[in-house]
Structures are given as C-alpha cells and as structure tokens.
Amino acid sequence: MSATLLTIILFFVFMIMGVPVSVSMILGLILSVLFFDMYAMISIATLFYSALDSYLLVAIPLFMLAGIAMSFGGVARRIFDFSESILGFLPGSLGAVNITASMIFGGLSGSSVADVAGLGSVEIKEMKVRNYPLKYATALTIASSTMAVIIPPSILLIIYATIANASVGEMLAAGLVPGVFVAFLLIVANTIMAIRNKWTPLKKFSSRKMIQTGYVGIPAMLAPVIILGGIFFGTFTPTEASAVAFIYCIVIGVLFYRELNFKKLYQIVYEGGRTTGIVALELAAGLLFSNLITIEGIPSILAQSIADLTQNPILIMLMINIILLFAGMFLNPGFSIIVFTPLLLPLAESIGYSPLHFGIIMVTNLALGLITPPVGACLYMGSVVSGLRVEKIISNLVPFYIVLAIALIAIILLPQLSQGFVDMIF
C-alpha cells in the first residue's frame, strides 16, 4: 500500500464520520506520512504555509468580498432590472432575464454560490410573483449559476491557473466565450419550455425602459468592463483587478445606490472572512495532497494505466470526464481542481489538449457538480433561498443537466470556443 492510497482511504473514513472535507484530507495525509515516514513533520507545516503564500491567490478572497458587497449593495437588483428591460419581449422572458442577470453577476463575483445567494433571491421571488412555477424558477436559478465559475473572473479558473502554472489572464479570457455559449443554450432551452407551457412575454420591448434601467444600472454594468478590460489589456493583474473590484463595489454601494451602511459592511467582512478561511484550508489540503502524489509518481502511473487500456484520444477524454463527473458529485470543485489537475492535465496534454482548453473542460464539468447531489453547493443554496426540499428541485433540473452536458461536449470538441478569444486578445 502506498501513502497516497492510505491517504485516500483515511480521507473517506473521516468524511463518513462527518469531519469537514479539507480537515479529512489533512488528517489522512499526516497519518500516512507518519506511517510511511515520507518526510519530517515540520515539512507539512512548511508546505502548508507555502501553499497559501501566493500573490495570485490573494485574488480569491477579494473577488469573494466583491461578490458579497454586490449582494448587499443593491447591484443585483439593478442588473436584474436592466436584463428585464432588454429581454422582456421573449416567451418565458423572465427565465431569459434570470439567465442573463446571472451571466452578468457571474462576471462580477466569480462565484456560483454567491450568484444563488445574492441574485437568486431576487430572481426566484420575481418569477414566483409573475406566476412561474416555483420549482422551475428555482431549478433555472440554480442551473444559470453555473456560468459564474466559467465566466471571468471565475475563482475556479484562478485556482486552476495557479495549479497548472498557466497565465491567469489568459485562463480567465478562455472562459468568456464558453460562458456566453452556456448562457445562449440555457436561453434557448428556456424559450422552448416557455412556448410548450404557453408562458407569455412580460411586456413589449421599450427602448425608453431600457435606457432608464441602463442609466440607473451604469455603475453596476461598468464593474465587469473595468475588471475584465483591465485584465485583458494589461492595465492591471488579476490580483490587482480583484482589489479594484472590491473597492469599486463598496464605493457604488455607499455613494451611488446608498444601500451599504456600517452594519452591512461588517456582514460583508464577516462573510468574506468565513468563506476565505474555508477556501484557504481546502487549497492548502489539496496542494499538500498534490505534493504527495507527485513525490510518489502517481500522475505518470495513472497516465500509463489509461494508456495501457486504450490509445484512442476520444476514449481517454471520456475516461477523464467520467472521473471529473464523479469527483464533482462528491467533492468541492475547488478541491477537485487542486487534486485532479496534477493527475489529469499531463494525460490531457498527451492527447493534444492545451492547458487552457483542458482548464475550461475541467471547470465546466465540475460546474455540474455544483448542482448535483449529494454535495452540490448551489443545489442546497437554492433550496435554502426558495424554501423547497432538494428532491423537489432535482426533477426540474433534468432538462438543464442535459443542456450543460451538451455545452460540455461542444467545449471538448471545439477548442476555438476556449482558445479563439485568447489568441485574439493575447
């Protein structure tokens, strides 16, 4: 038995006992290192510190804080109103508004859970008031939140770029077109269901209403332009962009929309600190495990094992995606990226996939895990926001599982969806 295998066994044992995922991994790793006498215990502490001592990783808590500030500062409401003024003429238009608003909000927060928690309450309430079935409204809100981890400034893409030693700016740019593509497919699916169920449009298109809501929403809409434009054109680094995003969201929440006060600022800092602590522990645990499997040569062993089974690139990519689908169902996506990137990226590169293209495939695949049981964070957050039991939501999510699976297949088969915009910008 190897140290890696013992770590995995202990990891699942601790998880079954109810120990948090990251703590389960750290405990399993410490016990395995002690049992096999891999290296001195002080090295674990050093590696733990080194895992988090990264300038790039500072972007994660700052983007999280920016997303929370948007939720509390009135930005979500303005994004929703502006989206409604543009798409209100479509059949089932409030569903299309829901999807578009989630895409824009995802371009601000980088977090799917923040999207459901912040914008989801507005979206579900509005759809319920307009006589949409609550189960459908909740399912659509949960499904549309997956775009936030694909659209830049996705926190998952930042984590992947750090692990894969790829350019964070290029990685974020690679997510833009696939994210918009997912939004398009979701809008098409929603429109088909609206026609089938005879859901009428909200209202006729009004340029006056669009200008009015657009004017009020200008500060909110400028945020993704400033953040992404600055990253893509080299004005500032992704880490600097995260700081700009947080400060900008605080400023417009206090001075423009006047919905932020000291009490809400305390809540923002508290929630940001709590969430950052969880993510930081997961990052450190995952990077410690990545170091162990690298020492034991597990990536090359796995690659050789799969190569012995088949040389067909299609079958190899199918195996990779099956592994990721199962990982997404049981593990946090950020944790999955940290653990599986060193294992699967060399294998993907061996069959011709670039790190950028594979990163988008991995994140899109793991986004499915955010909305599937038993551990789907967005699924449970949607249940909390709507008040519905999880099992009542899942049946309404089935069409969206199919849509996201189609999007994943298209992203795998069409590398230009991921690579084209990067080549144009960089």
Could you please describe the fold and organization of this structure?
- The chain is globular and about 70 Å long.
- It is built from 22 helices and no strands.
- The chain has one domain (39-425).
- It has helices at residues 3-16, 21-36, 41-52, 59-72, 75-87, 93-109, 112-129, 134-144, 155-164, 168-174, 176-197, 207-216, 218-232, 238-256, 262-295, 298-309, 313-330, 333-350, 355-369, 377-386, 390-413, 416-425.
- By secondary structure, it is mainly alpha-helical.
Descriptors:
mainly alpha, 426 residues, 80% helix
Provide a concise account of the structure shown:
With 426 residues, the chain is mainly alpha-helical. The protein has one domain.
Largest sheet geometry: none
> In which range does the helix fraction lie?
over 70%
How many helices? 22
Integer-rounded radius of gyration: 21 Å
Q: Unreliable segments (pLDDT under 50, ≥5 consecutive)?
A: none
Note the overall shape: globular
Name the average pLDDT.
83
Strand content: under 5%
For the record, the count of structural domains works out to 1
Taking the alpha carbons of the first and last residues, their distance comes to 46 Å
Strand tally: 0
Structural class: mainly alpha
Helix-strand topology string: HHHHHHHHHHHHHHHHHHHHHH
